[in-house]
Amino acid sequence: MIKLEDRIKGSCTTILVGKAASLDGSTLIARNDDGHEALDPQRFVVVTPEQQPRHYEAVLSGLKLDLPDNPLRYTSIPNANLSNGIWPAAGINSKNVAMSATETITTNPRVLGLDPYVAAGLGEEDLVTLVLPYINSAREGVLRLGELLSQHGTYEPNGIAFSDNNEVWWLETIGGHHWAAVRIPDDAYVVAPNRMNIDKFDFTSADTLASDDLQSFIDDNQLNPDFTGYNLRHIFGSSSIKDTVYNNPRTWFGQKFFTPEIGTEYEPTEQDLAFIMHANRKISVEDVKYVLSSHFENTQYDPYGHGSVSDRKRFRPIGINRNHNVHVLQIRNNVPADIAGIQWIAFGANTFNTIVPFYTNVEDTPASYRDASDTFDPTNMYWLSATTALLGDTNYEFYMDMRDGYVLEAMAEYHAIQHEVDARVTGSVDVPVLLADANDRLAKMAVKKQTELLGKMVRSGSEHMTLRFNFND
């Protein structure tokens, strides 16, 4: 059995966008699914009701649960190697409800002294499998997960995102059994790193949910350091030196991109950057991908930049070699419900990849995204993306223009396919078949474009190898 301290990734970054804050009126929940190792192959699959287990047993904790007999179909991004469990990461079910799990967060010893972790409880390995197939709305997702946490407990601190076409919710676990959740305002966004993120919390609001005794748990145990109100980050969070170099700078950079004045009003180390934010424009899927791929561009903290060595190594970037997948779960409001769910996905370190918009109302996924294994295979999208990122890292500035051209061309192709397919959805069309064909086209285009980029990088990079000699040198 893996030790408790080895279960917790502590690596991801989450972005949440309400429907009035997004470019096209969609809800967006997105996350970098990061890990401890640089490589951990991932797959993109569909889990049908027949494939969903009725009797679940967690690999890491040994938790056993009987599950309802009426699961929905849902998408998932599991590990290729299942020896440590499924780790489904994120998906959209057949009711167009999305879930991303999890963002590892932080806590403090006062909380754990009162409500310790439960070694045989729930964890990131389990949550999507146990919740997403059984919910009809984002709010239902919060309530189902909250009930499971209260009943079985958890062995780690996590933040979990839910969305449907109307609402975006964010839930954070507190100690072993407690939790709190906030509905993100329609006109707002959130950038959440590996820390307790919820700040101001109103127990009387219709836009908050929490474990039944959370307020009395705070009051009876004198956990609130503030003179007025409830700030859950102050009460339950860490506020550590690690936060100032590992977590807070990621929020600062994301907020600076969406709300530029943040960059001048606050330092990257600021502990009290607000949870709920409002952008200076409507947010696109491309904006979300940019932030989740970023490494503090145009600041002295960019590891690829020209700042001092100490500045370039000072903060943990958002895009990092340990990105295994990035997903943007989009539930659209301007199209029929049959095609509303879009799971944008990219694999590997995010500096040299593009997200691809896969329709989720399907029974299967393209082989190049579905069939990764631990064996290196450049025809598989995970390994192809990882290879491109590795080569790009050897001379980022040299390869950056090639990357930017590739991103522009590839994203334009994906949008063109999506516009064409959206327009073909009528009452006489077999929609799942149409969408499966569209996903195959999107996957083939993605592999083609990624391979072309890698080829350009290999060809041009070969001219600049150190091991060269000619009489003109």
Automatic annotation (TrEMBL):
One of its GO terms (biological process) is proteolysis. Its EC number is 3.4.-.-. One of its GO terms (molecular function) is dipeptidase activity. It catalyses: an L-aminoacyl-L-amino acid + H2O = 2 an L-alpha-amino acid. It comes from the Bacteria. InterPro entries: C69_dipept_A-like, Peptidase_C69. Keywords: Dipeptidase, Hydrolase, Protease. Pfam families: Peptidase_C69 (PF03577). Belongs to the peptidase C69 family. This is Dipeptidase. It comes from Weissella oryzae (strain DSM 25784 / JCM 18191 / LMG 30913 / SG25).
